[in-house]
Fold this protein.
Amino acid sequence: MVKKKACIFISGSGTNLKALIKSSREYNFPVNINYIVSNTKKATGLKFAILYKIPFRVLNFNKLINLESILKDLKKKNIDIICLAGYMKILNKKFISRFKKKIINIHPSLLPKYKGLDTFQRALKNREKLTGCTVHYVDDKLDSGKIILQKKIYVEPNDSEQSLKAKVQAKEHRAYSESIVSIFR
């Protein structure tokens, strides 16, 4: 099986990155992770790039020169898909248009509910009975692209933001890999 080449964009701890790396090591998984991009050198998830010897780059996406530079890198590396995994910057329209239908994101809510930040806080405040995560294609509107897959969890009366986050992240780690398999099936 010839695997597709993936680039993972991160900003933080890299828990979804780690799950994707683990999946990519499986024979039947359709992608290899060939490149990691972070918008901050403080992203602790970069330790997985070092540990698994995956090339990475830290960029400032607010500067046009960096945008052109990363586009050249991705083209040179023949990247087939970009996965945003805890990536906390909004990609500009030009970047998205260059990779239309090749950028996916995971979001910690059942979209279209709770787009953006503070999803767990808002779900608890609104006394939701269900929440979860959504993998979706990225378009030029925040958390609005076509949904690929959703995983649900029950919100328990004693859940806090932290406990809800832990339960949702456990679902995310499976949902992202399942979504990639479904895309390349």
